[in-house]
Specification:
Layout lengths: L1 E2 L15 E5 H13 L5 H16 L24 E5 L3 E5 L5 H19 L1 E9 L6 H10 L3 E6 L20 E5 L6 E6 L5 H9 L9 E2 L5 E2 L2 H5 L3 E2 L6 H16 L8 H4 L2 E8 L7 H17 L14 H13 L1 E5 H11 L46 H6 L41 H14 L3 E5 L2 H9 L7 E5 L4 H10 L6 E5 L4 H7 L5 E7 L11 H10 L3 E5 L4 H4 L9 E5 H5 L8 E5 L2 H13 L6 H12 L1 H21 L5 E3 L9 H7 L6 E5 L3 H10 L4 E2 L9 E3 L11 H6 L7 E4 L5 H18 L17 H21 L1
Parallel strand pairs: 4-5, 15-16, 15-17, 17-18, 18-19, 23-24
Antiparallel strand pairs: 1-8, 2-13, 3-4, 5-12, 6-7, 6-12, 7-8, 9-10, 9-11, 14-20, 19-20, 21-22, 22-25, 24-25
Bound molecules: pyridoxal-5'-phosphate (PLP).
């Protein structure tokens, strides 16, 4: 087997003249710049740099040499690795095309956390198609946590099974690490005669490779690394059936078992890994295990040497000593050419998108040190093919990604109605410790929402306003916010009464006018743009993608309040926004029984900042309310589609009604924002407003309609009616309302799930009363509904009446 160490023939240090001693601090800085320029988050850069340094110090082929080969380029369409199946001792991670190293980093931590809790942790990883780095680095971390680690990893077709010259297996490394009293003992071996990168390196240097290690594309033996890599095949490490058998099992355990592809692996871009951690404490005691291993190693070191051998070396011993020597000297040897390539990569233009000045994102709570907080991180799913992400909204609403473990397989998510969690020991945390910082029921809701919105993470707050307050925390004193001029009353209060006390200035603009936003942006000061589309209650539309581009140009973050359409009908993150807020009080809960607010954040680093405020200010949603919101989610599409269909009918009827001056409903072709709306949303929604020209008439309509409950809020199963100027928007001063063109006679309707004909008949009756009250005479075709009618008969009558009214309108 080929132990990856400096003493491997293919890694013999290059001739002295061509080698430089690079100071370790320079190496780290250059690596941080080179990897940082590729678009990774700061934390990801740390993980990647750490793994490269580990290999470089040990002189193995998983180090800096991978930079010129482009191995660390941010994979296209990469999302963060996510846990998609989770049981007490075992879990499955969908790498979502993230860098293999990042998937293994996550899998290793998860396996250790599980082993700590139940003695063993097995984590399968699939759907990655890029480098995992040296497996030794990851098993060392498991060993350092006091566990025995085993990692196997599959890769594309490079290696021929014994007796064949055709590449089927990957180089399929296997690494095992175990704790000993003298520090971790590690093996890390490719099951191929040489690792892919050592061939790559030989090819770069124009060298041949000896030792009968491979075939060319025609199946003839060759020593030319170019021919082996170009359609040829590498042999297994021992050129015999034994090596082939081991390679096969690594392919099966690290690939097939973990969910990796086994055919055309290069094109499938789905390679697997299996990470196992075993706690020796659960097998008779950790100290006793280490003592037995130490005794065994001592025996090996003291064994009678073969002729010509001066010292028997243990696996990994040479490379560990090399790393030690480098650390002591503070330098690492590297070829001049590679050093030059590294400096060039470090000088490359940064590919990072600018973000607003960020406070430190450390949690104030001990959980930041916990080994594995179940993540609510999900990648952009829109349009992504395959797996769960390819399903339509109605399916995704019912089938939530399962991110918390449940030994009984309950179909409804468990309700963890607890404030605190017992810890594994006095010095270690479990995945949860305190519900303000995290609660499994909340994690489940947040993961589901992130999945629906295409967010890195989502966060559940005690109300929509609590969520928006957390967003306002992202703006510092002295900075500036731009918001629309027709916004939710509570948001208006937040911006006029609270923001000024925080030293934050606010401008309100007409967001249907892009130039107005451009003019309002103050260079260097405007940090947040808050958008609503449709607005509430006038249902104005803004071009979310267009305004977001303007805001981003000026360096501001964009939050879209999407409460009126919810992810069902509009997905602002896909339109470019950074954060989307949805009041869960409305369509998500759907039954007027929960107050809650959800923030979905596209960028993982920004998400960390939001999490900081959720935890620090204690504004998270309680477990039972999270549970109710999840129940609401399941039926959200059914409710919203029914509500929207009826709303579209009512809007048509109102538009033709003599008592109505103006209808605001973006689903009507006559709405000035209809085209923009149709391009960015999939429905007109179920909220509409209209003007009668008479406060008196409006009041009668609201009070006489029986099925429409007079309430603020919307999105309930029940139809609701309100006069915004006297209710939800009363907190906006009258003068300001007038200035913003918010007329006192405006009636807002939230359409429920009742039978559409009952709703229209009810509204018809109320409007007749209103016309009577103001002495208005006009012939309006009525509804003649009775119990014996079928649904189809009612619907036909409904459409006839609307058509009659529309015909009348045409004549006048
Ligand atoms: C209801 C609502 C909010 C506030 O949500 P709460 O859950 O009531 O705090 C914010 N924006 C819009 C558009 C809303 O309709």
């Amino acid at each position: 087997m080929k132990v990856q160490s400096v003493h491997s023939p293919h890694l013999e240090p290059a001739v002295v003249s061509d080698t430089e001693a690079v100071p370790l601090s320079d190496l780290r800085e250059l690596l941080e710049q080179a990897i940082g320029s590729l678009g990774y988050t700061e934390k990801e850069v740390d993980v990647i740099v750490e793994a490269i340094m580990w290999s470089q110090l040990r002189g193995n082929s998983q180090g800096v040499i991978k930079i010129p080969s482009g191995a660390f380029a941010l994979p296209p369409g990469a999302g963060p690795a996510v846990v998609v199946q989770d049981s007490p001792g075992i879990a499955s991670i969908d790498g979502q095309q993230c860098l293999g190293m990042l998937a293994l980093h996550r899998a290793t931590r998860l396996a250790v956390a599980k082993a700590k809790q139940g003695g063993v942790g097995v984590v399968g990883v699939n759907n990655t198609a890029s480098t995992t780095g040296a497996l030794g680095h990851w098993v060392e971390q498991i060993a350092e946590a006091g566990m025995v680690g085993v990692i196997m990893c599959q890769s594309p077709e490079y290696v021929a099974p014994h007796g064949s010259t055709e590449a089927i297996f990957g180089t399929n490394p296997i690494a095992v690490g175990c704790p000993t009293d003298e520090g971790p003992l590690l093996i890390d071996l490719a099951t191929s005669a040489q690792s892919w990168y050592s061939l790559f390196e030989a090819r770069e240097k124009g060298k041949t490779v000896g030792g009968d290690i491979g075939y060319d594309a025609l199946g003839d033996p060759t020593t030319d690394p170019r021919k082996i890599l170009d359609g040829g095949a590498i042999r297994t490490f021992d050129r015999s059936y034994k090596g082939s058998a081991l390679a096969l099992m690594v392919e099966i355990l690290g690939g097939a078992l973990a969910g990796g592809a086994v055919e055309d692996k290069g094109a499938a871009r789905n390679w697997g890994s299996l990470v196992t951690a075993i706690d020796p404490a659960s097998l008779g005691g950790a100290a006793a295990f280490r003592a037995r291993v130490s005794a065994l190693l001592r025996r090996i070191k003291a064994a009678r040497p073969a002729p010509g051998v001066s010292e028997i070396r243990l696996p990994g011993e040479n490379s560990a000593q090399l790393a030690e020597r480098c650390r002591a000297a503070g330098v690492v040897p590297m070829s001049s050419k590679l050093y030059e390539q590294l400096r060039a990569a470090a000088a490359a233009e940064t590919g990072r998108s600018p973000s607003a000045a960020a406070p430190s994102s450390n949690h104030d709570h001990q959980t930041s040190a916990s080994p594995e907080r179940p993540s609510t991180t999900y990648a952009q799913q829109n349009g992504a093919a395959g797996g769960r992400r390819g399903y339509a909204m109605a399916t995704r609403l019912v089938h939530a990604p399962k991110v918390t473990s449940d030994p009984y397989g309950s179909v409804s998510p468990p309700l963890y109605q607890t404030a605190t969690f017992e810890q594994v020991s006095a010095v270690e945390c479990g995945p949860y410790d305190y519900s303000r910082s995290g609660n499994p029921t909340r994690t489940q809701l947040e993961a589901h929402i992130a999945h629906l919105e295409g967010a890195a993470r989502s966060f559940a707050f005690g109300s929509g306003m609590a969520a928006l307050s957390a967003v306002l925390r992202l703006v510092r004193s002295g900075e500036h916010v731009v918001a629309g001029d027709d916004i939710y009353g509570g948001t208006s209060r937040l911006l006029t009464r609270i923001a000024p006390d925080l030293g934050i200035s606010v401008s309100n603009v007409d967001t249907s006018d892009a130039q107005a936003l451009r003019d309002a942006m103050i260079p260097g000061k405007t940090k947040l743009v808050m958008l609503e589309s449709p607005t509430n209650p006038r249902m104005n539309i803004c071009d979310i993608a267009g305004l977001t581009a303007i805001a981003h140009e000026g360096g501001a973050l964009v939050v879209v309040d999407n409460s009126i359409l919810a992810p069902t009908f509009q997905q602002p993150l896909a339109l470019g926004a950074d954060i989307v807020m949805t009041s869960a009080t409305k369509f998500i809960a759907g039954h007027s029984d929960v107050t809650g607010g959800l923030l979905s954040v596209k960028d993982p680093e920004l998400a960390e900042r939001v999490y900081f405020y959720q935890n620090a200010e204690g504004s998270a949603l309680g477990p039972f309310d999270c549970w109710l919101a999840m129940r609401g989610l399941k039926t959200m599409v059914l409710r919203m589609e029914r509500q929207a269909t009826t709303a579209a009918l009512i809007a048509r009827w109102l538009q033709a009604h003599p008592l109505v001056r103006k209808v605001n409903y973006p689903g009507l072709p006559s709405h000035p924002g209809h085209a923009v709306h149709a391009a960015q949303a999939s429905s007109g929604g179920s909220l509409l407003s209209f003007e009668t020209g008479s406060v008196e008439a409006s009041r009668v309509i609201a009070e006489e309609a029986e099925l429409f409950k007079i309430t603020v809020s919307f999105g309930s199963c029940s139809s609701l009616i309100s006069l915004p100027c006297y209710m939800s928007h009363a907190s906006i001063p009258a003068a300001l309302r007038a200035a913003r063109g918010l007329p006192d006679d405006l009636v807002r309707i939230s359409v429920g799930i009742e039978d559409p004909s009952d709703l229209l008949a009810d509204l018809d009756r109320a409007m007749r009363k209103a016309m009577e009250k103001i002495g208005m005479e006009a012939a309006v075709p009525g509804f003649d509904l009775h119990e014996g009618q079928t649904g189809a008969q009612r619907e036909r009558q409904l459409l006839q009446r609307i058509a009659q009214l529309e015909a009348q309108l045409q004549q006048t």
